[in-house]
């Protein structure tokens, strides 16, 4: 179990959010972070719809669901204008941040600071700001439900 | 929220169990009860495999998963000899009790005492013996994971 | 490509049929034969519903769909009384024959005469009585549609 | 049954093709046309993978499978640079043409000439150049297999 505080998000643009979100401001609430790319098949078929379902299922709790568009390949193909159409067509309603592009690297800033291996990646952050779960690839629905309920019951 | 203690199980025969199980003896542990019929299509396609996955996922917790064969129709078709083959073929490993047949009614005893409306039915019982969830029909995996984690964290 | 005539069915009892069916009487029409066991998980989840869909989809053609209950294990668990409940619960409407039990062998007669390796098995018979396809295990829907259309266009 | 010849394709750019394809040059062969948009959820989850499977399944026949990127909304989001990444990520190997953008209308040229209602649309063209099937929305795998086999057997 890690006791390090999860790195702050670095986001260049927000969708579905009235104002920028920060982990610092969310301290005290659990955060479900879904890192994805709009052209990653495993994200589109599984991870992103799963995240939307978690957003809907736990809407009456203080869980904060956040999408993070971590583009690390095909950058020209997945610009914000394309992401916005993707979000519209897939009826995504949770806040989504565009991970800040890296300098001298195809890997965006937040993706690098978390050491993510690819997309989709699910990161679940405790109320105290530490990482409870960091999972790469398809996550099981039942396990996701259990993990979220667990961090919600932590004080 | 009900505060009544869940009715005791009435079981005529156990599979996958070294000895009979009772809710009384399990007091202090949460119990996931899956009421099914081996020829109920919704049980076979969804409820029973989901219960097996819950059994596997929470094996390192003190959750007790129990199947209950609540035959209320086609009694001649779903006798214990058929149930045993079903359990073998579907590789079910959690304890399964045969609900005691009713007298002068097609509804078996435990099914009646819980007021179940049909199969599959999922009943989740708290450590203190009260019912946390009584759901008829298909249950969502994420919700099931969340409910189990919630009762596990109760003291 | 085999030119041998497919063996005649040996059936001890029919469901969903006003009178016994024979391949001899069906000569001139293509026949889709689905060999299954009611407690075979792959049959219940895939093969049997697929067969029902083929029966529905080609109802306006002269394809004859036939189910064959080829019990080769757990014989006591899958007697006709259980099969009838299974057929009712799963809303199967195509004719289903109970493969005649073998003597001195757990393998029923038709299953043996076709050299079937297990269940589910799909056998597609041409208008001229020869076997067009003999497939063990899960069959792809698109391929099944194509094979049926092919034998329907043969003269 | 229509006897009109299917309108010629109007394509501004081809992917997965050594040279432009035309229906005129393909006369004598059946053609499966899959009209899609890369950000249409029903295309991504069902229609496009189904088309790839048809391409693979009938590769030893003279069926020609063609994708047509019929962008009629979110034009800025689905430019060819994005389509190319989509094709790469989803491992699509059949030829795909970009439907020529319309003048004074969001509807591209081929989409309009066929009177398509949206995406996905599947159009199956006979050897003689007439339309055998024009289907909007999700197409059933078994029916698709049957239709393709039927047009393949036509002379």
Automatic annotation (TrEMBL), chains A, B, C, D:
GO terms for molecular function: antioxidant activity; oxidoreductase activity. This is TlpA family protein disulfide reductase. Transmembrane segments: none annotated. Residues 1-153 form the Thioredoxin domain.
